[in-house]
Amino acid sequence: MLDLGCGNAIGACHLVASGGRNLTYVGIDADPTVCQWARKVLDSLPPAELRGSVVTQTLQEYLAAPASRFDLILSSWAFRSCVDVRLTDTHDAISRAIADLLAPHGVLLVGDAFIAPGATSEEIGRIHRHHLRLVGDRGTGHPIFPPELIATLFEGAGLERVERLDVPALPLGPFLRIPHDRFCLQVFRREADAR
């Protein structure tokens, strides 16, 4: 598994908790401090269930070097932290490079926040402040990468979207006055080897 913008390696924990055995995990994140925590998390997981490493690199640095292919690639709350939404001329190339890392019949899971229609400008401000506290500012432009754009990019890279699920980003959203803060999980798959 490749975990893009792995943060504290929670993706590795989910793999083990779901019953995974003898798994190989590679996490990448540009934040050296976060990567130190992720390495501690990996060290605490049973080695019979998961072995892995965490690489301190930006997504672009990782994609520029030769890499293995993966059966599963995960980007959870991280696509907007790894790809600058303002640099639209880079989106297609980055999406194709990510798709090229998928093994035949591999699966890409992309989950990230978005703002549902109907939010007021005040609520949008609260959502942005909440996301800033949640995932920080990685200097990648607007903190929301629209799910429709993510789908268009990966479908354009030759992947098929097989599922989309939109849920509240935070169960306490209405209490925090951010009911339009949503999380979109999209599942993409490669049917055949496109390389």
Descriptors for this entry?
single chain, 195 residues, alpha/beta, Rossmann fold, 7 helices
How do you describe this structure in short?
With 195 residues, this protein is α/β, with parallel strands linked by helices. It has 7 helices and 7 strands, in the order βαβαβαβααβααββ.
Describe this structure as you would to a colleague.
The chain has 195 residues and is an alpha/beta fold. It has a domain at 58-189: Rossmann fold. It is 35% helix and 29% strand. The chain has seven helices and seven strands. The protein has helices at residues 10-17, 32-44, 59-64, 79-82, 88-100, 121-135, 147-156, and strands at 2-4, 23-29, 50-56, 70-76, 102-115, 160-168, 181-189. It has a seven-stranded mixed beta sheet. It starts with a strand and ends in a 6-residue tail after the last strand. The relative contact order is 0.16.
Per-chain topology:
Blueprint: E1 2-4, H1 10-17, E2 23-29, H2 32-44, E3 50-56, H3 59-64, E4 70-76, H4 79-82, H5 88-100, E5 102-115, H6 121-135, H7 147-156, E6 160-168, E7 181-189
Parallel strand pairs: 1-2, 1-4, 2-3, 4-5
Antiparallel strand pairs: 5-7, 6-7
Strand residue content: 25-35%
SS summary, helix count:
7
CATH class value of one domain: Alpha Beta
Which fold name is given in CATH as the topology of one domain? Answer: Rossmann fold
Secondary-structure content class: alpha/beta
